[in-house]
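so my prof wants the structure for this chain in the tokens format not the other one, which i didnt know existed until like an hour ago. anyway here's the sequence
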Amino acid sequence: QGQPVESGGGSAHDGGSLRLSCVGSGSATCGTTVTWYRQVPGKEREFLAAIDRRGVVSVHRSVRGRFTISQDSAQVTVYLQMNNLRPEDTAMYFCKRGLMQGDICVDIWGQGTQVTVSS
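here's what i got, hopefully its the right format
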């Protein structure tokens, strides 16, 4: 069974930048939209940004102007560029995207990548 794989997390200082990547692994990608979320322990998963195959994007107002979502031409890799990071951006970051499970396209969550921002 395929799964999205996130990478690019790590540590950054207040005001720093990181770029996260999301690729499909083990199955062909499908569907139209790839979405990034984040979650801190004890809180609900929070929507950050989404992009469809045409390149139409949606970015939550809480990160608009600091976070940018983009993709390569075939939507093989979807990126989340995070600038001007703040300690409150510390969270586990997840992508969700469609992957073929047999003959069915299923939206699947990745395992996440940790981002830690220090002041």
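also thought this was worth mentioning. The chain has a mean pLDDT of 96.
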